[in-house]
Amino acid sequence: MRLSAAKIVSAMAIASVAVLGAQYAGAVPNAEGHSAQPDIPAIRNIAHLYTTTDTGGTGQVLYDIPTLPNGVYLATLTANFFPQGTPDAPETFSCYLLKDGLMRAQSTSSSTYTSGFYVGVNAVNTIKVTAGSSVQVGCGLADGATWTYGTRTLQVDITRLDGLIAGSLAKQKQTLEPSAVATH
Fold first, then answer.
1. 85 φ, ψ to 5°?
2. What's residue 3's pLDDT?
3. Which of 121, 136, 127 lies closest to 75, judged by CA?
4. Rounded distance, CA 123 to CA 148, Å?
5. At the N or C end, where does the chain have fewer CB atoms within 10 A?
6. Distance CA 111, CA 147 (A)
7. Does domain 47-160 have CATH number 3.30.10.20?
8. For 128, phi and psi rounded to 5 degrees?
9. Chain centroid offset of residue 72 CA
10. DSSP one-letter code for 79
11. Helix (H) or strand (E) holding 70
12. DSSP E strand stretches across the chain
């Protein structure tokens, strides 16, 4: 029986997959995202997704994020609100992320109508969680009025990252003409 090159390559590929599958078959990550086998790398970039079933609130409403393992995380939040306000008296909605009581991210949007598009907010930043860190998110109106979420209640996504390298930004040495600033 004569075997073609394509059949030989196919048989080798199937055998290779079988060997790799057998090698990694027991590599199930534990609760911390680490492999049960020491030679298998830990699963990285695990996302923790939190949301609320609340329909709204009065003034500012604060939510606690459950304790996270130590590490660096990318934290994002999103929500939208049923519009309220008028052109003469706009309402300003905001959602924000606090770490250890300090503002880490915030998004604010104003509404001047009581119908139409929902008022959306989105914010993002990195945070470093250590033992004893607290992470909270809040949403609401600064004036203490009652508000209602729209089609997207508060959703927070906190994704574990492999690390963080911080850098600094240098102020640009070139000065721009006032007319050039308006076009940027």
1. 115, 175
2. 54
3. 127
4. 19
5. N
6. 12
7. no
8. -110, 120
9. 12
10. E
11. none
12. 47-51, 56-58, 60-65, 71-81, 91-99, 102-111, 119-129, 135-141, 146-148, 155-160
- 184 residues of the chain, pLDDT tens digit each: 565 555 555 555 565 544 444 444 444 555 555 545 556 666 678 899 999 999 999 999 999 999 999 999 999 999 999 999 999 999 999 999 999 999 999 999 999 999 999 999 999 999 999 999 999 999 999 899 999 999 999 999 999 998 889 999 988 887 767 666 565 5
**If DSSP codes are grouped into helix, strand and coil, which group holds residue 19?**
helix
Q: Where are the alpha helices (DSSP H) in the chain?
A: 5-24, 178-182
* Residue 77 CA from chain centroid, whole number: 6
Inter-CA distances, 20 with 5, 13, 15, Å: 23, 11, 9
- Those residues whose C-beta lies under 8 Å from the C-beta of residue 171, and which sit 6 or more positions away, are none
Q: Token match 């949007």: residue?
A: 109
For the record, the structure tokens of 163 come out as 């690390």
**pLDDT for the residue 126:** 96
Joined together, the tokens standing for residue 99 give 């770490």
pLDDT for 19? 45
Where are the domains positioned within the chain? 1-43, 47-160
Structure tokens at 112: 């001047």
